[in-house]
Design brief:
Helix content is 30%, strand content 16%. It contains 9 helices and 7 strands, in the order ββαααβαβααβββααα. A hairpin with a 7-residue loop joins strand 1 and strand 2 (22-30). It is globular and about 45 Å long.
Length: 278
Amino acid sequence: MTTDTTEAAASERRRAPLWRAILVATVLLLGVTASASAAPNPATNIPAGPLPHACAVAPKTSICIDAVVAALDKARAHIGLGPYLLPADFDALPGEEQLLILSNLDRLAYGLPPINGLSPALSAVATVGVTNDADPDPSALLTGLSSFGWSSNWAGAFGNAPEAYYAWMYYDGWGGKQTSNLDCTSPTASGCWGHRLDVLAFTRQGTLSMGAAVTRDAHGQIGYAMTLVWTPPASNWTSFTYTWAQAQADGAGSLNRHQLATRRPQVALVRAAKHPRS
């Protein structure tokens, strides 16, 4: 899915409903290579499994979000990684901040540069994407830059941001007759795992800015969007409303007291997973 080009031509790719949702992914690059070769895709889709009834009636409650996080941890264990080390107040954070934290924890697991923070300008673009049920397109903000790259994802109808993120990361590949990704036409098609590749794009050091939105479209349907922009180091083209440093200060990437009590057997897995990639 990711290509290296100097032409400003983005391709939008649509996917059929996944569970109860629709997803779209786009990538555009200008003088930049967005490669996620350091981050292998799962061999197959990893179903989240049944979620509690709360996810149908109150999807943003801790009962539901904790269940989705448990599914995320299970999917991570399936591919040999330890659990997501989330802040203790993760359930109460805005969905946009949840998407940043989850994205960076996966990027760091594969040795990729972390996203610096949430850009208000890009989040406004992401909001337009949700409103239009389409990928955010930040290119108008980047016209003054000689080198940049961006990727975007959109999902509609999931109950909360972590659930949409699960679909992007663990249920975007080939599934035979059950394949939900219309670009994933065979087990080896380049369109498979496009959303995952967007989250894990850009291996080069630079400034990574993210826009995210959790809002409703013109029909009142809940939607989720993110766009990730790479620019050269110290480009300082945007500000941040929430930074990765703030997330880390809140406990992202560190075992909190609850995780120490409930996930101690998995700490060894977290450490062991780092050695093959060092």
